[in-house]
Amino acid sequence: MAMMPLMSPSTTPPLPSSIDAPASALPPVVAWSRAVAVGSLLGLIVLGLAWELVLAPTGNRTLALKVLPLAVPLVGLLKNRMYTYRWVSLMIWLYFIEGVIRASGDRGISAWLAGVEVLLCVVLFAACAVHVRWRLHRAHALTAANADTAAG
Q1: Which of 9, 31, 41, 59 to pair with 67, CA 20 to 30 A apart?
Q2: How far is CA 123 from CA 7, 85, 117, 138, in A?
Q3: How many CA atoms lie within 13 A of 51 on its CB side?
Q4: Which residues contact 40 (CB under 8 A, 6 or more apart)?
Q5: pLDDT score for 149
């Protein structure tokens, strides 16, 4: 029985380059989570613009600028970049907090719109979490398979 040599952290092999693979090469769960993440992010952008400009405008409508940071990760999600999924899952909690505060403090249509914002934030977080988990699992499985074929 052959023993594998111990590897120090500096000699750990990198994850395969398939971690940023095109969407066509991804399993159905990952492709589905990508579609849900992109859809919910687009939903948040449209909701934010409609809310602040048309449905329940506040003041001089400068709060519509809050959707600008949401446009930044859209390119990374569409290009299937793992790093983008990770930081979006952290950034989205700022919008979640805003939705919770406005849902509990506002009245009328604004409170309902805030509830929709909270729901979209939770969906986006869950989609990003599933996406990252499955892609990392797949990358580690490929690494293990490559190590087995190299050793055998």
Answers
A1: 31
A2: 39, 13, 10, 22
A3: 25
A4: 120, 121, 123, 124, 127
A5: 78
Q: Which two tokens stand for residue 134?
A: 């499955």
The SS3 of residue 113 is helix
What is the spatial distance between Cα 94 and Cα 41, in angstroms, rounded to a whole number? Answer: 14
Is the CB of residue 124 less than 8 Å from the CB of residue 40? yes
User: Within 10 Å of residue 96's Cβ, how many Cβ atoms?
Assistant: 17
Which residue is associated with the tokens 């919008």?
95
Dihedral sign from CA coordinates of 37, 39, 45, 47:
negative
Separation CA 151–CA 82 (nearest Å)? 29
Higher pLDDT, 14 or 104: 104
Q: CA-based Rg of the chain, rounded to a whole angstrom?
A: 20
**By the 8 A CB rule, do 70 and 41 touch?**
yes
